[in-house]
Amino acid sequence: MDRSRRTDDRKDTFFKEGVEYWIGKIVSVKAPSQRALLSGDSWGYRYRVRILIDYSNQDTVKDNDVFTAQAFVPLTAGTGAAERLETLKLAPGDMVFGLYLGEKRTAPFILHAFVRGENVVLDDNGKFTITSGFTDKVKPGLMAGQELSQTSCPNTPLLKKDANKGNGKGKGSPLSQLSNKVLGGLGENVVGALPKPQGGRGGGTGNPTNKRGSGVN
User: Is 91 contained in some domain?
Assistant: First the structure.
């Protein structure tokens, strides 16, 4: 079969000239259009992406005007049907891998993302450099600002010795309330523990359960 015939056959397929893949970077939320997409003003999961080759470090195209790429979800995530869904966790500064579903390098879709390893150097000075995923509204949390995903997992920070919550004081155990329970002592938890009776109709102060021979003292 000659090459010209094979090329003609490819033009009759859905992808015409064939599938074209690309690599790009999700741009910063400082671009108003990106901020709108990530704030819920979008259908599906879409991100502004600066694609290699289509753009360069020397071009004058602003982040606000680069391609908008739709992201596929994994089969385990669900599509939203029957209340089955998982949100995507891509962040500005991520490098992603995708393909074009339209002719002439149009309709870009995101397939996968490149993970961040411990040797990745964050740099805000280039259009294709890896930048932090944190923003003015997305702050470091339990992982204390670690931004990596690899076989050697991030370190879980140790709990602070003087940790507190809310009012600046540690939360103590309600020992005085626990001591007023009939069943169970301070050394164990009992489901359905009852409070000690404060007196019956006849004015007695004894424990009525003792009269039935329950053996509770």
Answer: yes
